[in-house]
Write a structure and sequence with these properties.
CATH superfamily: Ribonuclease Z/Hydroxyacylglutathione hydrolase-like
Number of domains: 1
Number of strands: 14
Mean pLDDT: 96
Helix content: 10-25%
CATH architecture: 4-Layer Sandwich
Oligomer: single chain
Shape: globular
CATH topology: Metallo-beta-lactamase, Chain A
Radius of gyration: 18 Å
Length: 274
């Protein structure tokens, strides 16, 4: 399978020359199955460009897209009203979240309700389905998906997506316990091929932002070691961190976990590679 990053910034989009290397869009990624299936993780502002690419690639042919929602904070869903397949009658979109299907539909629809947007969510032309994700695991085409609850205000989840013996984990909004690591999350990520983790704060920043629901690069390293993952990818970058600050975080992390990388818009990873 292939992993594509379309948005790697947290909280709010960032712009300017200082963020050009890693990108300024909020969270969105795409996994392409070896069998051709499409699985989107989150619908931050990066999903707009992804939607345009998918429409160009499909033409007028039927398009099936599955979207996993980690949680409903705005930075993870705010791009959805600008997702081109949402307005395409040939598109079938299935949404998954840990919440009941009706609640997921209600929360996503709220983005386009009343005076917030000129087109109501339910009036868009695509065929939409809403499903409650099963924590223990469920299938999306050739993918096997499971999730783990995270420590984040109002809740969030980490998703583990597996195919052909390879696995990708997204855990981008979580905070460690006061002492040690999140043992449940460490067990969940065990042996993952790629572990994408929250790196919103530096360790110094975290001292005055404890309780905000986010982590540091060092927390990612500690989890990667405990979980025996193969590759660590820092993501969900602070909108106040420029490219130089992010590069410095990656270099610091590499000293403790050699296979550490920074997520960046436009980066495509063959998950076959370890």
């Amino acid at each position: 399978m292939e992993l594509e990053f379309w948005g790697v910034r947290g909280s709010i989009p960032a712009s300017g020359r200082g963020v050009a290397k890693y990108g300024g869009h909020t969270p969105c990624a795409l996994l392409r199955s070896s069998a051709g299936g499409l699985l989107v993780i989150d619908a931050g502002t990066g999903i707009k460009q992804l939607g345009e690419r998918l429409m160009t690639g499909s033409g007028k042919a039927a398009l099936k897209v599955h979207i996993l929602i980690t949680h409903f904070h705005l930075d993870h869903i705010t791009g959805l009203p600008f997702f081109a397949p949402l307005y395409a009658p040939q598109a079938a979109i299935t949404f998954y979240s840990p919440l009941a299907a009706k609640e997921t539909e209600k929360l996503l629809g709220g983005l386009q309700a009343g005076r917030y947007f000129p087109v109501a969510f339910k009036e868009t032309a695509s065929r939409k389905k809403f499903l409650k994700a099963a924590e223990a695991g469920f299938s999306v085409g050739k993918f096997r998906v499971s999730y783990c609850p995270l420590n984040h205000p109002q809740g969030s989840v980490a998703y583990r997506i597996e195919e052909g013996g390879r696995s990708v984990i997204f855990a981008t909004d979580t905070e460690p316990p006061e002492n040690g690591i999140d043992e449940r999350l460490a067990a969940f990520i065990h042996g993952a091929t790629y572990f994408i983790c929250d790196a919103t704060f530096t360790p110094e920043e975290y001292r005055i932002r404890q309780g905000w629901g986010h982590s540091t690069w060092r927390d990612g390293v500690n989890l990667a070691r405990a979980g025996g993952v193969k590759n660590l990818v820092l993501s969900h970058f602070n909108p106040d961190h420029d490219d130089a600050r992010i590069a410095g975080m990656v270099q610091a992390a590499k000293k403790e976990f050699r296979k550490t990388y920074a997520a960046r818009e436009g980066w495509t990873v063959r998950v076959d590679d370890e």
